[in-house]
Amino acid sequence: MKRQTLTDARYHTIGYIDTAADGRQTGRDARLHIVGYYDPHTDTTRDARLHTVGHGNLLAALVAGR
After folding, report:
1. What does the pLDDT look like over 10-45, one tens digit per residue?
2. CB neighbour class for 17 (10 Å; exposed up to 12, middle 13-18, buried from 19)
3. In contact, 39 and 58? CB cutoff 8 Å
4. Residue 18 bridge partners (DSSP)
């Protein structure tokens, strides 16, 4: 699994995006709580409760919105 760190303008960590071997991604906030999922096969982003947020990868927006 690969982890990408998301930071704000002052380089404070605001969250992470973990990418699995099959391409699926999980968005986490700075405290490692899951905020959403992205499935590249369906091109759909879902929130932590699995409700569809939109099409395309919107995980960075979900993490930044917290």
Report:
1. 999 999 999 999 999 999 999 999 999 999 999 999
2. buried
3. no
4. 3, 26
